[in-house]
Amino acid sequence: MSSASVTRILAVLAALVLLATAAGFGDDDESRDWNTAPASEIHERLAAAKAGDLQRRTALKQLLGGSEATTQTNYDVTFYDVKLRINDTTEIVWGRVTFVATAAEGNVGSVEVDLFLNMTIDSIVGSSGQLAFTRLGNVVTIDLDGTYRVGEQFAFDFWYHGHPTESAGFGAFTFGTYGAYTAISTLSEPYFARTWWPCKDRMDDKADSFNIAIEVDTSLYAASNGTLDSMVAHGGNTHTYYYRVRYPMATYLFMLAISEFQVWYDQWVYNGGADTMPLEYAVYPSWYTASLSSFAVTPGALTIFSDVFGPYPFATEKYGHAHFTWGGAMEHQTMTSLTANSFSMSTTVIVHEMAHQWWGDLITCKSWRDIWLNEGWASYAEALYYEALGGWTAYINHMIGMYFTAGGTVYCQDTSSTDAIFTSRVYDKGAWVLHSLRGVLGDSLFFAGVHAYYNSPYQFKAATTEDFKNVFEAATGVELDWFFNEWVYGTYYPNFWWYWMSEPAAGGGWDVYLRVRQVQTTEPRVFTMPIKFTFTGVSDTVTVWADEKIERTKIHLPANPSALSLDPMNWMIKSQQRLAWDMFVITPSDGLDTVRQYSAYTDTIELRGGSGWQTWSVTAGSLPTGLSLSNEGVISGTTSDTGRFAFTVFVDDNSYSYTDQVDFTLYAAPSAGKPGDVTNDGQVNVADLTLLIDFLFRGGEPPVILNSADVNGSCDISVADVTYLVAHLFRGGPAPLPGCVN
Fold first, then answer.
1. Do 598 and 637 reside in the same domain of the chain?
2. pTM for the complete prediction?
């Protein structure tokens, strides 16, 4: 490497140190009580930690060159046998990784493996000897010892060594210290496992199982995933820890944490006391006492999540925590890594990372576009944990603590930037999306969907947002495209302006007029949501399905309410403004009166509220020729037209900025009609009966002349007229009578 290159790398690394400090990776403020901090602040710090770490590693990767991702679709890894010898003095890793895989396509003669280019390849050996390989950047192409058909198994050993990082403290694998203690650890999310071990570094191809062997100095303890089967001393100054992972695991979830740990154990009792699972805690000795109280929440939280989501997925192995050198925390499978400080060891962070064992580890997001399925679920799980302990009040208080009112979608359209992937939006808004989905579905259906997702074909695999939606739709029987389009893929939230007024109702009680406008100018312009309203002074709750810019509802109540609240249970992210004064165009419950051809006509559209000085107009469609709309809402005049006229009435209050509009339909009928001639073709036959049935029972067009359909002369059009006309046409019944419908 040239001196200029070295200088450039050192300059960049210096800048990255500043970035790390700015992102919050320095000393924790131990005076802060993080157990009382708002969830949004905790999530912002967790997101910043991941994003900052990724920025550092991405910058280093760009310096070292190579590609970010490979296709690798022609084979599936089924098993990794990883043997590592780690020298904490020379900071060199020696390794052998055995790949066992099957061909996913026909005629597979070569495969691509990911390994960062600063690691040296010693040899790659197949069943028949050494295999040829080529290396381009971070991708190693290996020529197999044969050609394999779909489903056929092959294996090879990959021998390598090197310093995993360019400079201590940077990269996915770090050599460092914590006070007087050695501190070696890994954090490979999202695609940096390749920086320290050869693998197929894709989240959507989990190996079915792992064997992990870690040789370290005898003074050190090596924590990793799965079950510690044994520790073997070598008679010198090293010993090896042997772990087995019996469940499928993504490469980015494979972890090491190595130090002079003080290791202590507890157990989780589950299945009504019939079973137990070990809990393992590897902590820096100076944090041992604090860890006893911090990690005391672990057994109870495991029980709560197992009850709410489904049984802990890795119960035949373990769960635990290990201190590591990165900022924040990381949900490594069966062994969460935590920074040794009061923030990372707070209850909220502990239960957040634990929830990832279900949502992130059991079911992994299939791409980083779907990261909200990991982080949104883990954040929402915090609220469910507190609900189990303290009921609805504790639940909603925690949700309010991560209330998110910024723009943007939880579905990451842009994954090129780490800042775009790990943001508080996917944590906070992601949690609120799930909370709102619970509000839409109700508890019974929502948790049926949760259990279906847990037990879905994506268990121990990876899922997309669409996969998640499809599972919930199948489990609940509810079509959810509208919800996901607006709340998951949409970029904003609704802004409601609403107003209500009441008046005594004819016949007793009170009529309440409610109008809700969505005034947001961002997408989506209209959110389709059930909006719950509760009344003060009247024990009643009304749900208004909002799917229009303006929703209007008339509600009849036994008494006059003193107040009205929109979404008092806070089921959705929103802004709202309750207007002190507004106006309503009142749609007649039975529609406008029918216009009689050549007859004087008048009907009034009523208005409530406003200043008393309005301008009325028809803004779409048209009235019959000869009719007009006054500024008092009166439609009057005489027309020669017949037929159906659809139009929109717009009212503008000239004293205030209030407007309203309502769609109307007006029917114009001929001046006279033959009794029973519903089709107005001069005859009384089956066609008239068909039109009458369509009108009454199938939402069909009304008779052109309403009187002609009143065949029994009752001044009403009903099933009795159908019966009368059937009797006349087919049974010799009396002739239709002149109608008297107004």
1. yes
2. 0.81
